[in-house]
Amino acid sequence: MDETLYKTLNWPEIEAIVYSEHDNPHNILGPHLTEYGMQINAFLPGVSEVLVKDTGTGKLYSMECVDEAGFYSCLISKKHIQYVLVITYPDNHTLECYDSYAFAPFIKDKELEDFNKGIHYEIYKRLGAHCVQHKNTNGVLFAVWAPNAVRVSVVGNFNQWDGRKHPMRRLGGSGVFELFIPGLSEGEVYKYELKVKGNLTYCKADPYANRAELRPANASVVADISGFGWKDEEWLRQRRKTDLDESPMFVYEVHLGSYKKPEESENSFYNYRELAVMIAEHMKKAGYTHVELMPVMEHPFDGSWGYQTTGYYAPTARYGSPEDFMYFVDYMHRQGYGVLLDWVPAHFPRDTFGLATFDGTCLYEHQDKRKGEHPHWGTLIYNYGRPEVKNFLIANALFWVLQYHIDGIRMDAVASMLYLDYGRGNGEWVANQFGGNENLEAVEFLKHLNSIFKKHADHAVVIAEESTAWPQVTGALDQGGLGFDYKWNMGWMNDFTEYLKQDPLFRKGCHGALTFSMVYAYSERFILSFSHDEVVHLKCSMINKMPGTKEQKFANLRIAYGYLMTHPGKKLLFMGQDFAQEREWSEARSLDWELMNKEDHKRFFYYVGELSSFYKKNPALYKEDFDPSGFEWISCLDADHSIIAFLRKSKKDAQTLLTICNFTPVSYQEFQFGVPYKGRYKEVFNSDHEKFGGSGVTNPRQKNAKKEACDGREYSIKVQVPPLGIAVFSCIQDK
């Protein structure tokens, strides 16, 4: 070995490279100016020869193998050199490439500082894998947060999955590792290999990856998501102008994998683009305004329905590429439909390639099992007190809005986040600093997320699936609320569903379950939902929850949806419920679309379309959803008949609607109801119409109010009340 070269070599650092323990390989690898000239070092195990090629002059310099493990070095009598490495392999194959260790750090100190504070809301543009140009050289910038790792490397097909070849640089005390690999491009499959304390080595998928392999493979894939040609400018412009509180909102909840399958096979799926066309066509017929997708973020197990997420920044590869999913959203917008995504910040699975013990420590999850594990679900709970973890989640929520143009997120399992004792018995949880069961760190995280969302999410909304009586979930942040835009009304859903299951003969005994929702209807901004949770785990389908004969089951379901549409609050149905799917839903098979060829199911689907059209045409049914002035009871105490009557109102008296619901199979002639004023009352909707499959008990002629006291009102009308039916009347006041 050349004596001068020997003097310049830092042998302890070379040893750290050879034994794959160096967390700042740029200190020794790449070009370094010495008193003898420019020294260039490279670690390339398994090669035969390495040359340095001066790209300015074309001159070649031979590198000496100074360590048999594959450490090469040479001295060049220049102070500056632009070069490539010319590498020859044992099979005489030669590769010319730029040196990854000749590039300065890409991520700025201020960005790292903001990330460590938890306030870099576009951190996904830095962490992960990004196709960039660095010093006029194209390649991929890799960056990952793993503060407690001894060493982190990028591995993939490009380096034979050898963690010795591309160790990453630790960026100060930020905990972030970075490496620019020139010459790589979109489509490369990769993971991070981490060496952790205890000399353990394992591979992890990239938490910030924009694409992942199709399960059961679980590596990350380099993806450039910046080039899609969006055509939804008009939709976004209208979204900024629309007050959703005062607009009709009828949401179609969908699981993409089981909506339709090209064949009855577990591993067979339609592409996002194909699904967009099919779903939009169906939504048009049924009258929906939004589609809500069960989680499309990458997940390993089909049976989790996406709620055990491993790839928060990657649309699942089951249905195509990131661009395919962008097409889905863009197409929906161009057809006039909003897109909502289910999102899961409450927990994550234990899969070894995922976030669990990411850098050898409980990095994303709590170390204390009483805080860090869900006893019911077998999953791990995020450490909401760690700024970088909060940043990961908040940035992810914004990512789907800003990068994929989605119109809102529905946050799953919020209750499990809010309570430290959720699903736990005595001795299984740790109280907060005040001795309570509130998870103060999670509360702060939710408030932080919602405040940032309102500032940066361009009028997209955040919806909470929260099943308890936690106060002010949709309350304003400056008034002590959590700041959500809407909350699923789980209480209404549970009470009403249990009521509907009762034989009509016994419904009078649980009449309060029908009317109780109006006691708290204005405590939050609610969405009334019949979701997927109501038709799984042996709960059976909606149609088969209904008692009675087949005709009565359909009539029961018609009045159920009629009450849904006329009750204050926004609306949601799960796929299949709009054509009365008979089997319980399963993610493993397609919906039973053949039922649409049967007359009773066809009529029921037609009913849903007509009902939603009626809902959207009548401002009284949505304008004052969250104002008590928009609702008024006429009759809510007639338990013996299981009949209720109420008014829905807007700011215009002429738009007032009188709604009558009969939850028994008995039809009543000349049934008297109080009305708000003297005038004419015309039936404008009736679920018992023959065209819907009903028995035809309707009110074809308008009713003139008479001065006969009823229901505490001066005026009243007498109408035919349909069996298991809902009848809605317009109200025209006499001048």
Architecture overview:
- The structure is a single chain.
- This protein has 735 residues and is α+β, with helices and mostly antiparallel strands.
- The chain folds into four domains: 3-102, Immunoglobulin-like (Sandwich), CATH 2.60.40; 109-221, Immunoglobulin-like (Sandwich); 248-620, Glycosidases (TIM Barrel, Alpha-Beta Barrel); 628-733, Golgi alpha-mannosidase II (Immunoglobulin-like, Sandwich), CATH 2.60.40.1180.
- The N and C termini lie far apart (108 Å).
- The chain is built from 17 helices and 34 strands.
Concise synopsis of the structure shown:
This protein folds into 4 domains: 3-102, Immunoglobulin-like; 109-221, Immunoglobulin-like, CATH 2.60.40.10; 248-620, TIM Barrel; 628-733, Immunoglobulin-like (Sandwich), CATH 2.60.40.
Quickly give the structural class.
Answer: alpha+beta
The assigned CATH architecture of the largest domain is: Alpha-Beta Barrel
Radius of gyration: 32 Å
The main sheet orders its strands as 17-18-21-22-23-24-25-26
As a percent range, the share of strand residues is: 25-35%
Mean pLDDT: 95
Runs in which pLDDT lies below 50 for 5 or more consecutive residues are: none
Q: Approximately how much helix is present in the residues?
A: 10-25%
CATH class of the largest domain: Alpha Beta
- Overall geometry: elongated
The number of helices is 17
Q: What is the number of independent domains?
A: 4
Q: Please summarize the sheet with the most strands.
A: 8 strands, parallel, barrel
Fill in the CATH topology of the largest domain: TIM Barrel
Give the number of DSSP strands: 34
First-last Cα distance: 108 Å
Specify the CATH homologous superfamily of the largest domain: Glycosidases
